[in-house]
Amino acid sequence: MYPFYHQLVSICGIIYINFMIKELILAIILGSLLGLGVTGGYLALHKKDIKNNPSKQIEITTPTSIPTTTISETPKQPSQISISSPENDALISTDQTTIKGTTSPNSLIIITTASQTFSDKSDTKGNFSVSIKLDSGINFIKISAIDQTNNQFDTTINVTYSTAKI
User: Fold this and answer.
1) pTM here?
2) The domain 81-161 is classified under which CATH number: 2.60.40.1180, 3.40.50.800, 3.40.50.300, 2.60.40.10?
3) pLDDT by residue for the chain (166 residues), tens digit each?
4) What are the backbone angles phi and psi of residue 25, rounded to the nearest 5°?
5) Which of 70, 125, 153, 154 can bridge 81 by disulfide, Cβ–Cβ 3.0-4.6 Å?
């Protein structure tokens, strides 16, 4: 009795598995058809709704010219500081240099590098000369002049200190 029972169970199992695969494939096909039908119906109704309701349609407009207005700027006060030596982007082979220039008479001169700050005053003609110490490599130097009415004028120069032979 046992051998017949085992054969029957294995045959029924194969039939049952084949039946499940067929049901699975049928479910996938029916689900896909149902999904496509619902999506197609929605799109058809939505397209019909756009045709009947023009407020939902995309409106394309052409650009129009905008009248231009001219804004006059108040003229800027010219920079009241000019550097005569050293030139911007100068290459210097010593660690000491002198910043020379002109500004308003009797102005406070403040020179700032990455590592130090130097100060002095311009003479009665506005000339100044301040000795500074440079760091190795490129030095970004900011020169500020503050005149007697507390107006501040700034300028910057770059000076490179290198002992390399070129």
Assistant:
1) 0.52
2) 2.60.40.10
3) 455 555 545 555 555 566 667 777 888 888 888 887 877 777 777 676 555 555 555 566 666 666 666 665 544 455 589 999 999 999 999 999 999 999 999 999 999 998 999 999 999 999 999 999 999 999 999 999 999 999 999 999 999 998 887 6
4) -65, -45
5) 153
